[in-house]
Queue: 2 jobs
Job 1
Amino acid sequence: MRDGEEMTRRQILGIGGALGVMAVTGLSAAAALSRRPAATGAELRSAVPLPRPFQVPLPIPSVLAPVGRTGGADRYAITQREVTAEILPGVRTRLWTYGGTFPGPTIESRRGRPVTVTHRNELPVPTVVHLHGGRTPAASDGYPTDLVVPEGWHRAGPGARGDGARGDGAHGGHGMPGHGMDMGAGMSAHDPRAVTTEVTRDYTFPLDQRPALLWYHDHRMDFTAPAIWRGLAGLHIVRDDAEDALGLPSGPRELPLMIADRAFAEDGSLDYPSLDPALRDRPGVREPYAAGVLGDVILVNGAPWPVHEVDAARYRLRVLNGSNARHYELAFEDAGDGRSYDFLQIGADQGLLAGPVTHRSLPVAPAERYDLVVDFSRMPVGTLVRLVNRLGSGRTRDVMAFRVARKAADTSRVPRVLSTDLPAWRREDAVRVRDFAFRAGRTGDGGTHGWLIGGRAFDPTRTDVTVRHGDTEVWRLVADVHHPVHLHLSGFRILSRGGEAPLPHDAGLKDTISLRPGESAEILTRFDAYRGRYLFHCHNAEHEDMGMMANLEVI
Ligand code: C2O
Ligand code: CU
Ligand code: CU
């Protein structure tokens, strides 16, 4: 199973078209690994003129005010709606948003203080909200068929496409999982366990978990990738007293950075190669993009290649790769002499590390979060520091820039011990070892190509893995191309990569692991949170939509 040759042959036999191109670049898994192909996916080219970098200021998503605070819980309300925004200067772009902005509003919360968010769906299609990284009961975890259907929605069957009319006797039912399997994607069936609601839904998050940068995003079955691309993503930060007491850079010196690539069509809309641009019936993307959709514009917090003025002081940067498929290798470079500055990593997906780790560059896969501290006091006032992606080229090599504007006092610190509450799981505690292969393959009889876990495409009616509550397990994961693998509900530790010690940036508690081409890894986790139906999947959002997702039942 782990043999590189075998993997490559399956890749070549099992896939065609664009995936064939990828197979060619990955003829030998070992060669692929040594060359580290920068991308799994194909890049869309924008058809509008793109702005020069470092002209627009970095936006900071606004923090959402609660609509109520009762009985130790905070209540929020978010309306999902379509808006027109100016992302590129002078270009008007239709977006699907949480609350009218992209990124959506940030929710700030305290560890152990429950939050209920009432989402109202005013978009033209069903939606599902998932809090990525949340330790959330199954009913609020955003299972892909737990749809919130908009007013007037009915499933458009054959011959009933696209009108969305209400009260049609023949198609009047609401809330069937809205994907047209009769149309050839061949990935799933009606899900009897789905709990759909009309127009609104309350999602309740206990947030009984380590402080961390989480994010919420759409998770509708078969259509997650285009929905996120259109703007359905926002940040959610969990804090606690212990973290506050550390003295890390804070206030205006703590910056959330949601990095995401996009492409723009001639009319200013976001370009995306959907087979069904209405995102109603037919899932999937045009063949050349089946390995992942990349854009040629890099947005940070929704702005193209922004610039941010900083004090000559330490800053805490809370980085999320919110891209569908693009990987980054981040580095801080002096725009003058090109030299790079090292920086500290203080946290991973699921919160603070035991202690800081120094990096000169840092790979960041889709959905991963990294908590960084950069010391701008080491740079002369006036320096322009570029945050670059060493995997990018041309315009996509730049991400954003910081201009060191002024000298300033700095009382922040980065203690050598950051946290002492990381789980103490050991490999010896594992009661089971499971193997999962993340690979391209064919689904259904039509031979539609897709992305598979253990040779199977996602089916909401099939339980793939049953675990016992409280059990500790080791999972061995192996990949053909890049697959950022995400586990809902439970954070994990990375035990090994390619049979060796994990990489320096693998430290801490994770919920997403970046598997590189041909790579295997072992993760260790304990299922001690909630019982119920959860997921694990590839977070290349196109792979996810094309089958690379599986059910996990905690009993
Ligand atoms: Cu970020 Cu299942 O998702
Ligand atoms: Cu998740
Ligand atoms: Cu993948």
Job 2
Amino acid sequence: MATSSEPSHPIIDGIAGRVAAVTGAARGIGREVADLLTKHGALTAYLDLSEPPALTAPTERFVQCDVTDPQSVDNAFSIVERHLGPTEILVNNAGIFEILPFAETSPEAWDRMLRVNLTGAFLCAQRVLPGMQEAEYGRIVSIGSSAGKTGGSKNTAAYGVSKAGIHALAKAIATEYAPYGITSNALAPALINTDMVTGIADLVNRIPVGRLGEPTDVARAVLFLSAESASFITGEVMDVNGGFLID
Ligand code: NDP
């Protein structure tokens, strides 16, 4: 029996009224995450290169942001602060994926992968952490990948390395900011049904659950880790993969 001091829905408490920012929120997983946070009452900013179609939230919640560009990141979070307030929930989701044999990976392709997938998360986290520290509250969820654990399927070295970096970044922030009421976790999804997996969906027969993941599978995990009552979970890398990689 819950006492009066316990939230009635502990899994999703502390979302309503919080300012959330989701990068790469125009489509795919990011869009689903942003919509789910919005549905649970968060004041969600949808950050992306271009505007998402038919926003669930008010249209001014879209904020143009290229996560690879420090100036663009700073501007975007300043806009979020002006319109909604300091970011309390950050979801580092923006990412790119490319299948490229190791020998054919140019320094430029390598840099671009790391800039979008890893440096982008670093820049966004560094931009919001002082505000979270001041508020003594924050939730950061960064989207890694099973490829960050395994190195990825064949011909995805740069992607796998970028996602391994996300897992380490989430842990490093967790350790440094735990005293300030800030948690930092990563998710390690695999084979989620978005534009990104077009062409590799035939891997479905290697998923024990017997289906591709859906963006909502990832969004629910983000929601769980963003809850106020998830305060004792930090530095975790949580699989969302239907048993594709059990480690
Ligand atoms: P999508 O390609 O469907 O969506 C990625 C989003 O990120 C797009 O809206 C894209 O914008 C945006 N984006 C790309 N570059 C930037 C940038 N520089 N600044 C801001 N936004 C940017 O991918 P998913 O939804 O599938 O993936 C989301 C995250 O989940 C990624 O980090 C991915 O690596 C990770 N992931 C996905 C898996 C999957 O199976 N789908 C598995 C494991 C991890 P635009 O449309 O303009 O390019």
